[in-house]
Amino acid sequence: MSKLLTEFPISSLGDEDIPAMFLEVKRAGWSYTPNGARVLTALIPEVTYTYFDVLQEEASINGRGIVDCDMPTAEPERTALLLRRCLSYAFGALCEASKYFGDQEVMAYISLSLGGVNDDTMTANVTFCTKNPNVAPYIRDLEQVQNEAIVELSLEDRNFWH
Q: What is the C-alpha separation between 72 and 118, in angstroms, rounded?
């Protein structure tokens, strides 16, 4: 991911970069589940599921593919737009999490990888999880991931793009 972020420098992120449906999710804010998971309120499913642990619950509820059907398929424009969209949504939601929870324990995970019918279209996913010393990390050996570009971000990382 560091290569992509260097290749596509992005600055002055804002709500105008977030797709409408994700902007609504961000604005709806955060909640705790009965298990103590920190989740985006608008993404809480109507049906109650059983999760192995809080991390699985957070990743399952908070993780979403980023809307990209309105984007060009041609590179490098697509990747630059996806990065901008992901970063704006991630930092917007992290800011809301910090306000609601009173800390900066929620982390954002952005991944970009090739997908689509022929695995030739850049796609993106964003999820949010808290770090818990008693639970394995959301992504083990983040630096060793090979098949996608991935980054873990905290709210403090936002300063780099403002």
A: 16
pTM over 0.85: yes
CA dihedral 139, 119, 19, 24 (to 10 degrees): -50
Residues 6+ apart with CB under 8 A from 99: none
Dihedral angle of Cα 12, 15, 17, 20, to the nearest 10 degrees: 180
**Which of 110, 157, 156, 102 lies closest to 129, judged by CA?**
110
Q: How confident is the model over 93-105, as pLDDT tens digits?
A: 999 999 999 999 9
Query: Which residue in 15, 21, 9, 56 sits closest to 35, CA to CA?
Result: 56
Q: Which residue has the tokens 């804010």?
A: 29
Of the CA atoms within 13 Å of residue 160, those in its CB half-sphere come to 13
Nearest to 152 by CA among 135, 133, 131, 134: 131
Distance from C-alpha of 155 to C-alpha of 105, rounded to nearest angstrom: 9
Q: What is the pLDDT of residue 146?
A: 80
Q: Which H or E run contains 62?
A: helix 54-62
